[in-house]
Amino acid sequence: MTTETMFGRAIKRREDPRLITGRGNYVDDVKLPGMQRVFFVRSPHAHARIVSIDTAAAEAHPGVMKVFTAKNLPATPVPCGVTIPNIGQKTPGYTMIASDRVRYVGQIVAAVVASDLGTARDAAEKINVEYETLPVVVDAEKATEDGAPLVHDEIANNTSFVWRLDGGDIDAAFGEADVVVKQRLVNQRLIPNAIEPRAVVGRFDRVTGEMTLWDTNQNPHIIRLLISLLTGLPESKLRVIAPDVGGGFGSKIFLYAEQLLVTAIAQDLQVPIKWAESRSENYLSTAHGRDHITYAEMAFKKDGKLLGLKVKTYANMGAYLSTFAPLIPTNLYGTLLSGVYDLPALSCEVHGVLTNTVPVDAYRGAGRPEASYLLERLMDLAATELGIDPAEIRRRNFIKGEFPHRVITGMNYDSGDYEGNLNKALQQFDYTGWRAKQAEARARGKYIGIGLGCYIEACGIAPSKIVGTVWGGGVGLWESSTIRFHPTGKVTIYTGAHSHGQGHETTFSQLAADALGVPFENIEIVHGDTGQVQFGMGTYGSRSLAVGGTSIVKSAEKLIEKGKKIAAHLLEANPADIEFKSGNFSVKGSPDRSKSIGEVALAAYVPHNYPDDLEPGFEAQTFHDPSNFTFPAGTYMAVVEVDPETGKVTPLAFYCMDDCGNVLNPLIAEGQVHGGVAQGIGQALYEYAVYDENGQLVTGTMMDYAVPKASQVPPVTTGFAPVPSPSNPMGVKGIGEAGTIGSTPAIANAVMDALSPMGIRHIDLPLTPQNVWKAIQGK
Amino acid sequence: MTTITVTVNGKSYTRDVEPRTLLVHFLREHLNLTGTHIGCDTSQCGACVVHIDGKSAKSCTVLAVQADGASVTTIEGLAENGTLHPLQEGFWEKHGLQCGFCTPGMIMSAADLLAQNPNPSEEEIRHGLEGNLCRCTGYENIVRAVRYAAEKMRAEQPA
Ligand code: FES
Ligand code: FES
Q: At the fourth CATH level, which superfamily is domain B2-77?
C-alpha cells in the first residue's frame, strides 16, 4: 500500500508511452470494414442564394456511392445551446446542409460518398452549384449600421442580442474623475488550430439499430444528447466515442454540421462513413475565436484610484450562433471586467452581431482573454497618463481584504492575494533589475519594453443554477465519476471529464491513489466513451480538476464510508470506531486490528460474512455540482525588444506567477502554462484570421495564418503562488486557460512600453512587424 | 496503379498504389501505420515527418512512388527491441507532449536534428524544429526533451 501522498508530485504521464510510440488512437486512425469516405462541398461565396445544384455527373463518377444535398437529407438544425434570458436574443435558423442560401465561405451545400477520399473529391468537382451572390458584411461594427447587408433577413441590424451589465453609479464615477483614458481596441479573430483537424467516423449497425460515432470532441455526452434530441435516435442507441483527441482549445466542444451529417449519411447508407477535414477545410468550418471591437473608457482619480469602466463591445458571432457562442462575449466576458481590481462602477454593453464569416465560439480562455486584455491595456494607458509605474497603479487598485469577495459584476471571488502575487512576481522575476536594464538599453538607443498582465479568470465551470438562470444554457455543468473497485483490488474510474492533452489519466489516478490508498498503477481512468461512462459534461473552462476531480474525491469518500461499515463488521467493531488511512481500515486505538481496502472490497463482492443491512458490491458514483466558480489569478511579465527599423518584436523573456490553487501535478500544471502562454503570445504577435470585404478568408491555410513556431516563443519561466480555493476539498482552481489570458496583455504592454519614448500609446493586435512599423512611421 | 517496394521499419512491402498517393497516405492507409499524422495540407505542420533513407522528410510532400526502393522509418520503428529511443524517453521525462498529435513528427525531426548536431543549443533546437508545429506545449518542454536526449545520446556514445 502506498503511504506517500501523490498530490503535488510531478508524476510522469501514463498516457505518454502509447503516444510517443505511435500507438495513439485518434479518430482518423479508426478503420472499419467497408468504410466509405465523405467529402463535403462547401460554398465558395460568403453570401449567396443557391439557384440550383446539379449532381448528375458526380453521381455517375466511378466509385461514388451517393451524393447528398438538402433534397435527400432531413433539414436537421445545427442548434445553439444558449438563449440568454430576457434580452430577446435572436437565434437564426441553421441547418446541417444549406438548401437555399449560404452565409459564409465554407458552409456545406453537398456531400459526396465514395470508396476513398480522392474519388470523392474528384466527383465533388463535377457538382455544379449555381449561386446568385448577395452583398456581404464581415465587420461586426459595420454590420450594425443601417443599410448594412442583412445576413438573415429577419434579424435587423444583424444584431442577435444586446447584453448589458451595469453596477454602481457610472455617471458619478466619471463625473468625479480627474483622468479618463479611452481606447478603441480590436481583439482580433483567431483560429484555434488544434494540430489534429476534426474528424468523425459513423457506423450504423442495422442489426441492433445502434449508431456509433467516433468524434474529435471534448464532451461526447453533450454531443450524444444533442444528436439524440435532434434526430430522435435514443441515447441507448447512440454511442459517441472521443478517443485520443489531438487538442481542442474549445474548438472541439461544439456540435457542428459534420457530426450530424455523418450520422445521417451512415444511417442512410448503412455503411461506415469517415470524414476527416483538411487544414484548409478546418479554417473554413471549425469555430473561430475572439473577434471583438471594443470602445472602452476608464475613469481614475489623480492618485491612480480606479473609479469606473465603460465598455461597448461589438462581438462578431459569425453567420450563425454556434453551440455556446452567446455565452462567450457576455457571461464569460462582461462578468470578468472587474479583474483583480476594486471597481466601483461598470457600464458594459455587448452587441452580438451576425456577419458573413465562420461562426465564432469558445477558444482557449473564451471571453476572459478579451476582458483581461481590455483591463490590462487600459491600466497601462492610465499609468502612462498619470505618470505612475504600471506595477504601482495596479497595486493601488487591487482587491484586498476578506474573501469571498463579491465584485460589481456579481461574481463572488473565492480566494486570492493579488498584491502578494504581484509582489512575489516582481521580486522573483527581478522587475527592478529589468527596469534598470531597460534604462541602460534606452541610453544605447535600444527599445526594450517590460509589460505586466494581472489576470483573473472564472474556472471550475459551473454551478448549474447559474448556467440555467443567468447564462441561459441548456445544460447543467456538474461533473460525474464512478469508482468501480474490483474484487482483485484493481480500480476503474469512469469520469465524465475528457482529456485531449490535459493528462487526466495521470492526475485523476494521483487523486484516487491518495483517496483510496491504492497504488497508482492499480487505477485505470476511463473517459470519452458514452458507451462506458455515465453521463458527463466534458472538458473546457478549466473545469476538470475543480469539478471532475472533486467528483472523484466524493466518490472515494462514499466508498470509504461503506468500507468502514464492512470493516467494522469484519473486525467486530463499531463503524464509528473505524479509521481509514493509507488504504487500511483499522480500529481506533488498536492499529493492528485492520483490514486493507482490498480485503474489504473482496468481502463486498463475496459477502459471506457481511453486514445484514448493507448492499454487496464496492462501487460509488457522484454527480458533483460546484457551489461556485474558482478564480485563478496571476501576474505575467513580458520583456520584449522592438527593432524600430523593421517593427519586429522579439520576446526576450516571459515570466508567470500563477495562483491556480493547490497544484496536483507541477509537471502538468507547468505544461499547461507553457502552452497557454504560447497561444497568448500568438495572439499578441502573430495570429490573425483575416477576411476580405467579399468574405473570403485571406488567411486560409497554415501558410498565411501564423501558428507560432518554436523559434517564435521565448523561454517561459513559471512560478506558483497558491491561495487554495475553499470551493473544493483539494483547494484547486484550474490552470488550463490562465496562460492564454494573462500573456496577451503582458506582451502588448511590453511592446507599448518599449515604444513609449516615441509617444506611441496603442497599436492593435497582432503586433506584427508591419503593424508596428506602420505605427512608428505614423509618428 | 504503380507497383512499389518500400522498406518500412526494416520490413519490405510491395504494394500497388495510385501515382498520386502520398507517402503519408501509403503509410497510414496501406500499411496501417497510423502513428504518422496529418495536420495540414500545405506542408507546414510537420506532424507527418518520417525518415527516408535516414533523413527527415514531410511524408505529406512526398509521393509514395518517390519512396520506391527507399527505406522509411516511422515513429513505430524508432524504439529498438522494446527500448525507447532517447528522444521518446526525453519527451516522456520532460512532459514534451500533451495531446501527442504533433509528437511523432516532432520526435522524428528532432532525431534528424540530433544526428546532424549532437549538442545543439536551445536556439539551435528551436530553429531546428521550425518545420514542426505544436499547439499544446509552447515548445518549452520539447526543447527540454531534446536536450535530455542529446545528453543521453552523447553519454552513450563517447566520441
Ligand atoms: S501534414 Fe502538415 S507538414 Fe505534412
Ligand atoms: S502535443 Fe498537442 S500539438 Fe503538440
A: Beta-grasp domain (3.10.20.30)
